[in-house]
Amino acid sequence: MSNPLRRYPPDLWLLFFGRIITATGFAFSFPFFAIYCAGHLKIPMGDVGAAFAISGLGGALARFFGGELADRLGRKIVMQGALAGRALTSAGIAWQISTGAPFWQLAATYIASNFTGQLFEPSSQAYVADVSTGRMRAESFGFVRMGINAGWALGMILNALVTESYVVTFGITAGVFALSLLLFSIFLREPPRAPRSAEPGPPWTAALANHPFLLLAGAAILLSVVWSQLVAGTSMYASQFAHIPDKTIAWILAVNGTGVAILQIPATRWMGRVGLVPALVTGCLLYGAGYGSYTFCTQPWHFAVAIAVVTCGEVLCAPAGASLATELAPLSQRGRYLGAYMFTQNSGQVFGPYISGQLLQRFPAHPGATWFTIAGIAGASAVAHLAIVKLFGVGKRPPREVEARVEVKAVAAEKEA
């Protein structure tokens, strides 16, 4: 059996530990923003959902441009800018809460924070793609996600144990992002990338002609409506309808991060045997089962079980989707394709919190109206992912090992240039 410390390159380990730190800081405060607005400021859930929808739109645009910037400027500098933005806006939210700022000011800062923070994602995903190859790529995406979710769980647990002050939580988050910026600046190196080649037509011509990628992007929009329920939808429903205390919700959400940390590597190795699209279809169905079961949840342990099912869907869909988008991208345009793929994910996230917020507000006595709708959208995403195999024959088999040889040649060409 190979040494797990040598299974991944040092660059990937650095990103892994960096994501633990950033995710801990994020989870310590941001998932509770909706609870603060709806529970403490008494803002209607529809208005909170609308703020999250605008935030999702900003995040979608950030991911779109972040991928392009990562190809043009480099992975590291875009990640540095995103961390700086997160630190400043987190401090801004802490200051606004302490001074009793109105909801619209808080929402504006939250939207700005999400925009700057989402610039980080396509750059970090492209970084993973640059330092991994073939069958190891999906596992590498999963490995980094394991770090993200370990940090997510740690942040939730610390929030439940440390403080009830929203000013303190967002202030600590600002400090954690500032520390992450310092560590990334010192230790993370820019990875070797394939040289940018001249495009035969206007930008995005090749991507728009890539029909399997377009179908993958459409499926991702549907799926992101579903997975966006983890933070805003879950917290609002558990708090306002099931009357579960805020600190208990933190422990419930920690099930997700803990589950991903435990299951991610076995899940990615399984998808390496069955193929990316079968893993995506299975994950969509698990998402639907988990969120659909919210209809019957009244106790904390009910939500914990439902979140565990959702987590099983997440550990399949997240790395498989990113890995398939990478496979469909030209070597020199990975940042662009991953940015576009993540743009579609956030486009769905624009509608996710808004849909659940509106349905919960309009049908408060019928939770199935909300959660069976979300489950149905997950089923539609499963069908769309399955169509990628049926129509184009892509993603059925495990990633090609031959890709490793192609990438070695690309890196060598860059060094000789």
Pick out its properties.
417 residues; mainly alpha; 18 helices
What layout of secondary structure does this protein have?
Elements: H1 4-7, H2 10-27, H3 33-40, H4 45-73, H5 75-98, H6 103-118, H7 120-130, H8 135-162, H9 166-187, H10 205-208, H11 211-227, H12 229-240, H13 246-274, H14 276-292, H15 300-327, H16 334-362, H17 367-392, H18 403-416
Describe what this molecule looks like in 3D:
- This protein has 18 helices and no strands.
- The protein has 417 residues and is an all-alpha fold.
- Helix 14 (276-292) runs antiparallel to helix 17.
- The relative contact order is 0.16.
Broad shape: globular
Spans with pLDDT under 50 lasting ≥5 residues?
A: 401-417
State the separation between the terminal residues, measured CA to CA.
39 Å
Structural class: mainly alpha
- Estimated helix fraction: over 70%
SSE order in H/E notation?
A: HHHHHHHHHHHHHHHHHH
Rg of Cα set: 20 Å
Quick overview of this protein structure:
This protein is mainly alpha-helical and 417 residues long. The chain has helices at residues 4-7, 10-27, 33-40, 45-73, 75-98, 103-118, 120-130, 135-162, 166-187, 205-208, 211-227, 229-240, 246-274, 276-292, 300-327, 334-362, 367-392, 403-416.
